[in-house]
Backbone:
């Protein structure tokens, strides 16, 4: 049982992270935000690149801070057999172990599923790989944009058919983490009911395909390979992102005849409703470029706020395309408490992202990401029950470094 | 028996977000009872892609995909009789999934604010574009507008031509699928606690927050003041020559960020004379726009002569990261997907057999499975009386 009493549905659950960079830590972050105690195992000899790359102070590294709030940090030298034994002891006292090391690396460390299962038959062992843990391509590695390209996502984003540009290159890691977290949660539920643990094998590329499942169904049913087509949508027209004053953009999506009529009235051009080019949905799709041109001529004269407010009042989906300034200043995200302060290891307030949800009796979110080894005493003393003397010996021998 | 066997979920949702959430639960064995409007059913039954066989409302491939393993019951919850039946059902299910507009739940007698008093053991999950508190100027939303409210839209694609508009996400429903994952995670977490404490809870998922969270590595640094914010459309980007390039047929994505990648590229190319002008560590320490442009020019010329799959395999062996930009056909042909059984044949009584995409995780003890195709409209309408009688006995 964890000593951390923060409430939330997963209070009392313990998660061990042997993760790197973003996707693996995203799993632990979601569990921490649901109330679990999440322990990141760190080794001084192979620190996470987000702690070190281009950073002056490993304990205040911005990238590290962003995906590890509310976690604990305990140091173990994974190059020592005694260190591996410590991790196995921790695994024996944990519910979930998450790893996203290079293919095969965890096994070479002596922490593969078979060995961890011997230490804890109930463990939920989550393995994350670009292609998953097994199969002819499982040896391959890549970065987030590779997942998106391989999984079919990139091909569907581009201004013109046949010219894919892909999503923003930051897309994929956090999605991969969310899918792994859900699978781990289901396995944890099974463990609570039956005592039986299991191996959870998550593929980043498959995660991407799951985000475009309906497009893939078109190939399954009809042999149709869908292609990128700017901002067009088969069921909504107009559907796009339109320029407004001041080099800004507004996204607009119009559904059905009634909204089309409201749009034409908003534009002050009710005659469009009589225009033979636009009189039916099919015709508006056929003449979408002409319709977009008329729309651009109108939107270009307005400010983002004016345009959004006119369209929303008439029941049409419209939203400013938020730049990073707009996003960080978004009053709604502040009001929801999505942007919120946590307290770092030196007692300073630090703003970070909260969970994507609000829930009754949710977990408290209080601590910023941990300093290296901040929780060594708690983890080795209280969780493992090692005496002060023994902890001192381990530290001096470089096992907990 | 799969992990969620014995869990009963009532699906009030009628959009992709809620239906996908229900599918994530149903594919692990939960009994998901979908309430559909008599006669026409869920609006997703009228959305494509459509199967060549069959007639409305049973030919939607979208509905077939989103509703595997579920039960369909025709019930108009907006009618008086429907609400009475709904009230009875709510006492006999573990969880409810909804994705209607804010306020709709209260209108059918399930006000989240009164949940604890009315149904203390019920897990109620609502997925909405902006969460339960809704500003005036965000009442109407579609996946496109939520994507652009999350920061992703403005920064899509990477390294944009700024004379062209920012783009939508891949496909029609990416934000909905993303929101569904967080919803399913929260629902099972809530059921986990409920197993012990017999307490339900209200879960309010904001798709805007889900999508913004999917870029937490960047946005959290921005709100903390550790990364510059701006009106630049490349504010999320990293400098470098990475990108998508045309191949002999189709496209490949190449990533280069380390001296190791640079060395790998040198081994792949026939003409390497131009590389001698570059410092060996330029990708880490000297990524100037001029070098990036020159590098991209040479990479483009080279990749244009290559087969996307062959060049990717060769590059992997040399530590250079090149991957194919796959499409639906490539994925179905993928030996890796076949090995893992990512596609599963589903035999739909109206649409016939097809290879459906499944889930991205394999569980050794309780794998997700498609046991039954999506239900025909009202196929399980009798289930309601079974459920109601069960408790009365």
Residues:
């Amino acid at each position: 049982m964890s000593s951390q009493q923060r409430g939330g549905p997963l209070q009392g659950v313990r998660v061990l992270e042997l993760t790197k960079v973003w996707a693996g830590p995203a799993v632990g972050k979601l569990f921490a935000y649901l109330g679990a105690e999440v322990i990141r195992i760190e080794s001084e000899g192979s620190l996470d690149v987000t702690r070190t790359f281009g950073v002056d102070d490993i304990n205040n590294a911005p990238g590290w801070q962003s995906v590890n709030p509310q976690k604990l940090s305990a140091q173990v030298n994974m190059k020592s057999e005694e260190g591996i034994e410590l991790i196995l002891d921790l695994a024996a006292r944990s519910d979930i172990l998450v790893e996203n090391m290079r293919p095969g690396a965890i096994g070479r460390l002596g922490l593969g599923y078979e060995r961890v299962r011997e230490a804890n038959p109930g463990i939920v062992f989550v393995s994350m790989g670009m292609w998953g843990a097994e199969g002819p391509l499982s040896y391959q590695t890549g970065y987030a944009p590779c997942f998106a390209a391989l999984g079919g996502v990139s091909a569907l984003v581009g201004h013109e058919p046949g010219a894919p540009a892909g999503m923003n290159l930051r897309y994929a890691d956090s999605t991969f983490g969310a899918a792994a977290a859900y699978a781990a949660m289901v396995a944890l539920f099974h463990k609570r009911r039956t005592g039986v643990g299991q191996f959870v094998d998550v593929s980043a590329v498959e995660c991407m395909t799951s985000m475009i499942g309906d497009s893939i169904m078109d190939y399954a049913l009809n042999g149709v390979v869908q292609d990128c087509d700017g901002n067009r949508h088969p069921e909504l027209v107009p559907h796009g992102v339109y320029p407004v004053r001041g080099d800004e953009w507004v996204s607009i999506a119009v559904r059905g005849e009634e909204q089309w009529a409201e749009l034409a009235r908003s534009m002050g051009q009710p005659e469009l409703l009589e225009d033979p080019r636009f009189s039916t949905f099919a015709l508006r799709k056929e003449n979408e470029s002409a319709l977009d041109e008329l729309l651009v001529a109108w939107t270009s004269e307005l400010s983002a706020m004016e345009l959004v407010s006119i369209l929303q009042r008439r029941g049409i989906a419209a939203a400013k395309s938020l730049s990073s300034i707009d996003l960080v200043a978004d009053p709604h995200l502040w009001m929801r408490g999505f942007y919120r302060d946590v307290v770092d290891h030196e007692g300073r307030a630090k703003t970070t992202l909260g969970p994507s949800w609000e829930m009754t009796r949710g977990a408290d979110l209080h601590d910023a990401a941990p300093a290296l080894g901040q929780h060594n005493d708690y983890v080795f003393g209280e969780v493992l029950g090692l005496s002060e003397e023994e902890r001192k010996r381990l530290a001096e021998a470089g096992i907990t470094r | 028996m799969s992990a969620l066997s014995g869990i009963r979920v009532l699906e009030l949702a009628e959009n992709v977000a809620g239906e996908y959430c229900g599918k994530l639960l149903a594919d692990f064995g939960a009994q998901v009872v979908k309430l559909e409007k008599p006669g026409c059913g869920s609006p997703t039954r009228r959305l494509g892609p459509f199967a060549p066989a069959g007639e409305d409302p049973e030919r939607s491939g979208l509905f077939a995909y989103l509703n595997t393993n579920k039960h369909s019951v025709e019930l108009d919850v907006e009618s008086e009789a429907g609400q009475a039946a709904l009230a009875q059902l709510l006492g006999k299910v573990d969880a409810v999934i909804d994705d209607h507009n804010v306020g709709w739940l209260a209108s059918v007698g399930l006000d989240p604010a009164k949940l604890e008093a009315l149904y203390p053991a019920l897990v109620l999950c609502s997925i909405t574009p902006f969460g339960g508190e809704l500003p005036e100027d965000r009442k109407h939303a579609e996946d496109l507008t939520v994507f652009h409210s999350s920061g992703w839209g403005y920064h899509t694609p990477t390294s944009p031509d700024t004379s062209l508009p920012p783009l939508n996400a891949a496909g029609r429903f990416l934000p909905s699928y993303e929101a569904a994952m967080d919803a399913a995670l929260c629902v099972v977490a809530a059921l986990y606690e409920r197993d012990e404490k017999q307490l339900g809870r209200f879960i309010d998922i904001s798709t805007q927050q889900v999508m913004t969270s999917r870029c937490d590595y960047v946005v959290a640094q921005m709100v903390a003041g550790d990364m510059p914010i701006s009106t630049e459309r490349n504010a999320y980007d990293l400098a470098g020559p990475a990108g998508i390039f045309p191949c002999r047929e189709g496209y490949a994505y190449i990533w280069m960020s380390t001296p190791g990648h640079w060395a790998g590229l040198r081994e792949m190319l026939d003409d390497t004379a131009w590389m001698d002008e570059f410092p060996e560590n330029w990708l880490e320490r000297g990524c100037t726009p001029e070098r990036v442009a020159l590098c991209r020019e040479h990479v483009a010329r080279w990749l244009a002569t290559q087969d996307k799959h062959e060049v990717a395999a060769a590059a992997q062996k040399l530590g250079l990261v090149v991957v194919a930009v796959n499409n639906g056909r490539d994925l179905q042909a993928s030996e890796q997907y076949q090995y893992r059984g990512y596609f599963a044949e589903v035999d739909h009584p109206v649409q016939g057999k097809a290879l459906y995409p499944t889930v991205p995780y394999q569980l050794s003890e309780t794998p997700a499975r498609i046991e039954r195709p999506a239900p025909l409209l009202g196929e399980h309408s009798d289930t309601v009386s079974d459920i109601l009688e069960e408790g009365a006995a």
In short: Chain A touches chain B through 151 residues (CB under 8 Å). The first strand of chain A starts at residue 14 and ends at 18. Chain A is about 40% helix and 15% strand.
